[in-house]
């Protein structure tokens, strides 16, 4: 794989304002996954935010569709990720595009460096809806009432 972005461009792509290409109204349960197609406000770039909701591992994966590079991925689980410097990051974490990690890891695919949560406004929480909202803020996704996710069969305890 050839790296088609640098750190500055990846960061710019994360921070430009985006909106959804279609309404996304879902009630999810454990085991569900989905994707939200997005575009930049100026309409020049398309992205996808994929999510998977499970008891063992919840993932939010944000990708640039032009390059197919992951810009960031949030993983909520007790497992770990090992960076190129052999440091293991345990528990809830975020992998963020990092060109130096691509060259240091030298495996031809890994282009993100892992950081423990909290990270730049994304808290260390296991709550799907909280992290989803924080991911949207971090990625500058304007929901504009078009992205609504709820947890199916969620009971309120009094």
From TrEMBL:
It comes from the Bacteria. Pfam families: DUF6978 (PF22398). This is Uncharacterized protein. InterPro entries: DUF6978.
């Amino acid at each position: 794989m050839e790296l088609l972005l640098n750190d500055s461009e990846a960061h710019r792509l994360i921070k430009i304002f985006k909106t959804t290409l279609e309404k996304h109204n879902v009630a999810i349960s454990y085991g569900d996954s989905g994707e939200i197609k997005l575009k930049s406000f100026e309409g020049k770039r398309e992205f996808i935010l994929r999510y998977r909701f499970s008891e063992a591992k919840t993932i939010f994966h944000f990708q640039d569709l032009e390059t197919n590079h992951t810009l960031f991925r949030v993983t909520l689980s007790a497992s770990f990720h090992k960076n190129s410097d052999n440091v293991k990051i345990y528990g809830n974490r975020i992998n963020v595009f990092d060109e130096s990690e691509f060259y240091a890891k030298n495996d031809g695919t890994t282009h993100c460096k892992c950081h423990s949560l909290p990270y730049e406004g994304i808290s260390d929480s296991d709550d799907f809806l909280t992290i989803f909202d924080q991911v949207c803020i971090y990625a500058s996704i304007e929901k504009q009432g078009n992205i609504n996710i709820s947890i199916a069969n969620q009971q309120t305890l009094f």
